[in-house]
From TrEMBL:
Organism the protein comes from: Sneathiella chinensis
Domain ABC transmembrane type-1 positions: 97-297
Name of the protein this chain belongs to: Binding-protein-dependent permease
UniProt topology in membrane: Multi-pass membrane protein
UniProt keyword terms in alphabetical order: Cell membrane, Membrane, Transmembrane, Transmembrane helix, Transport
Family: Belongs to the binding-protein-dependent transport system permease family.
SUPFAM superfamilies, A to Z: MetI-like
UniProt keyword Cytoplasm, yes or no: no
Segments crossing the lipid bilayer: 29-48, 103-126, 228-251, 276-300
Keyword Phosphoprotein applies: no
Subcellular location: Cell membrane
Chief subcellular location: membrane
């Protein structure tokens, strides 16, 4: 690409409505930077800490209950202090954020993978197919997602051994949250499909006898997926909260696996004995992460809202 082409690309990028909206929203810029930093530090945890939490071989009980570095008795080796078993809180937060982000992203991908196809099929087919799919979605929407996740986790716990459950706990948690959250994506996709199926280009595709699966994939899907992906951004924050809640209740990830919910639950036992840092820093991380993702989702929703165009 020539220098003139690069300059034109740069100018077009900066003049784009989305870029303009992003650069003129300080809250969104800060939220994006915070989310990016947390994502990089979580998945690059070994680069930022030499400690490996929840590894019994690396723990030293003599390091238990060390306060943060700025308090009396604190040390620079453990900036945020340690818990009752000598785990470094900062390292535990990094690895816990990694687990929470993984569960949140994968569960939303599963919800989208279920909801979008069902929504497109319901909206395009109509009739009894639409009725059956939407009534199932309506029934599921009356049940809080956390209760559905608790039910699936409970069935799994009674069906397999405890050791096997600890191995598959995270996949089960992802499946529980994903299955509990698909109806909202199906409803949004169905609404867009109802609009698109009556347009001329769909009639033209039918006229030349284009197979229905190709119509759904080539024509319907690209035109209805945008609003769904915007909602999915906020869905990631919701999934992280659900994971943290389940882990706090002791039915999420195993106690030997760090997650923000597990760390908060562990620290809650020491909250009133003076070791406030054990639960405070994981809880603060959860609040900042969820708030940042929500702010990005709100910006996407406002930017791509057709009524604002």
């Amino acid at each position: 690409m020539t220098k003139a082409g690069l300059i034109k690309f740069r100018n077009d990028f900066l003049d784009h409505d989305i870029t303009y909206s992003f650069l003129h929203s300080p809250a969104t810029i800060i939220a994006a930077l915070v989310t990016l930093v947390m994502f990089v530090m979580a998945f690059g945890a070994p680069l930022f800490t030499s400690y490996t939490p929840f590894d019994p071989g690396s723990l030293n009980l003599m390091d238990a209950f060390i306060p943060p570095a700025w308090e009396d008795g604190g040390t620079a080796l453990h900036v945020m202090g340690t818990d009752g078993q000598g785990r470094d809180i900062f390292a535990a937060i990094l690895y816990g954020t990694q687990v929470s982000l993984t569960v949140g992203l994968l569960s939303v991908l599963l919800s989208i993978g279920i909801g979008i196809p069902l929504g497109i099929i319901a909206g395009y087919s109509g009739g009894w197919v639409d009725t059956v799919i939407m009534r199932i979605a309506d029934i599921q929407l009356t049940i809080p997602p956390i209760l559905i996740a608790l039910m699936i986790d409970g069935i799994t716990r009674t069906s397999i051994s405890r050791d096997l459950h600890e191995v598959v706990a995270i996949p089960v948690l992802v499946a529980s949250i994903g299955i509990a959250s698909w109806p909202q994506y199906a409803r949004i996709t169905r609404s867009g499909t109802l609009v698109e199926r009556n347009k001329d280009y769909i009639a033209a595709a039918k006229l030349i006898r284009t197979p229905v699966p190709l119509i759904l994939l080539r024509h319907i899907l690209p035109n209805v997926i945008g609003p769904t992906l915007i909602v999915a951004t906020i869905g990631v924050a919701v999934a992280i909260i659900i994971e943290a809640t389940l882990s706090f209740l002791g039915v999420g990830v195993p106690p030997t696996t760090p997650s923000l919910g597990t760390l908060i639950r562990i620290g809650n036992s020491f909250l009133f004995s003076g070791e406030w840092w054990i639960t405070f820093f994981p809880a603060l991380t959860l609040v900042i992460l969820v708030l940042s993702v929500n702010l990005i989702g709100d910006w996407l929703r406002d930017t791509f809202n057709p009524k604002l165009r």
